[in-house]
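Thread amino acids onto this structure.
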């Protein structure tokens, strides 16, 4: 019976895929499933969804990116063997091959292949893969939940803060809220906190950044929630890029059971990094035509980017039910999606925001906003992280078909629209 290892290739060079195909073709009794992506972050996402037996990543001079990939994949899919593919000439004639291998091992690589790939080297790597007897190890990996929107002023930050405080009450010191609305972060004000440290300190101390330091930079709130605040101004915010955010999220999910991320309403590289790591993204909107039309475009863009619908949820916020709001059914029809949560408008929310006292701390759990927000808290509690061994084939189940060289490739079917949703309505 042929062996069918799942192989993930992460490289912007299509020639590497051709080299691997040629090498695999000469190995008897082998019918691998090969998936190729060009960049690091989609590679992490592919590892999360596909749980490959072997991940081949091409080394570049950016060893920091290699380390981020190794750290994240080793936790999302601990059974995956990580192998670096390298061309010695990339680092110049004065750098020895042994030095390259040492740097790769320091970055977390477990094996190596030299380009151009040879059949013998690939076969030996596959044989070593077969001999691996150690099973996956249990890892602590928190869930990452992001709150997104296509425009500001829809109450996204208020929701993130209230959900965070609700979770914090149930799981003290195990919930982190990251204010990644870098230009206009307001979470500290909504919590009546004056943080001495922010995301800027994480950037400044990136060389020693670890789980312990993440906890030290976070500010505790009386609810049990911890906050990693937004930078103090736009100049500081400019220093935070997608690599930095990826590093922070990688460490945060190791340090906390729940990591909530409030985002800026703009789909830039930092936002892309947040989505790549999100086990769930809540799109927050109000039931008015301009906001709904903008949300339609954002949902279309998420589909184009390949962010799975199974990890998306729709929240209609500040719903009044009066003539100045679209009806929930009309919103769902315009979006082409079910509305998952409806949170009613309450004047007390604005008062609570002005005082820095989240309403969830005092709201009833039996009706209205309190019932809706606690239902949302419960849903977040039920989310399973891919790193906890959950079944997360969220990119769509694939069928396998043969290729010309005897290997197999995976054909991904897009998710069907109109998934069933659980709705939490506030009276």
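Threaded sequence (427 positions):
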């Amino acid at each position: 019976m042929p062996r069918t290892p799942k192989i993930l290739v992460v490289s912007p060079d299509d020639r590497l895929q051709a080299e691997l195909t040629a090498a695999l073709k000469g190995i008897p009794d082998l019918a691998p499933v090969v998936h190729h992506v060009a960049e690091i972050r989609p590679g992490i996402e592919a590892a999360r969804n596909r749980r490959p037996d072997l991940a081949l990543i091409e080394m570049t001079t950016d060893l920091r990116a290699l380390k981020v990939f190794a750290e994240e994949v080793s936790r999302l899919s601990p059974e995956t063997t990580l192998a670096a593919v390298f061309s010695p000439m990339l680092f110049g004639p004065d750098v020895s091959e042994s030095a390259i291998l040492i740097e790769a091992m320091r970055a977390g690589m477990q094996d190596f292949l030299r380009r151009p790939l040879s059949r013998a080297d690939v076969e030996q790597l596959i044989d070593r893969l077969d001999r691996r007897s150690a099973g996956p190890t249990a890892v602590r990996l928190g869930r990452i939940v992001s709150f997104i929107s296509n425009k500001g002023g829809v109450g996204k930050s208020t929701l993130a803060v209230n959900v965070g405080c609700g979770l914090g009450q149930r799981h003290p010191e195990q919930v982190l809220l990251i204010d990644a609305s870098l230009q206009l972060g307001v979470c500290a004000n909504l919590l009546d906190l004056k943080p001495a440290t922010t995301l800027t300190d994480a950037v400044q101390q990136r060389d020693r950044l670890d789980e312990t330091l993440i906890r030290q930079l976070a500010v505790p709130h009386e609810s049990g929630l911890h906050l990693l605040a937004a930078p103090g101004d736009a100049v500081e915010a400019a220093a935070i890029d997608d690599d930095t955010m990826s590093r922070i999220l990688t460490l945060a999910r190791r340090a906390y059971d729940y990591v909530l991320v409030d985002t800026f309403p703009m789909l830039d590289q930092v936002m892309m990094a947040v989505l790549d790591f999100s086990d769930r993204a809540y799109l927050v909107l109000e039931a008015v035509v301009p906001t709904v039309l903008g949300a339609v475009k954002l949902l279309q863009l998420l589909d184009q980017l390949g962010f799975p619908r199974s990890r998306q949820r729709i929240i209609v916020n500040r719903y009044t039910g009066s003539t100045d709001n679209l009806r929930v059914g009309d919103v769902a029809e315009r979006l082409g999606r079910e509305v998952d949560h409806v949170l009613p408008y309450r004047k007390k929310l604005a008062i609570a925001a002005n005082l820095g006292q989240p309403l969830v701390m005092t709201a009833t759990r039996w009706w209205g906003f309190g019932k809706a927000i606690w239902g949302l808290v419960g849903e977040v509690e039920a989310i399973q992280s891919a790193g906890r061994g959950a079944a997360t084939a969220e990119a769509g189940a694939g069928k396998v078909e043969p290729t010309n060289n005897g290997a197999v490739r995976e054909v991904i079917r897009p998710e069907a629209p109109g998934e069933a949703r659980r709705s939490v309505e506030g009276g």
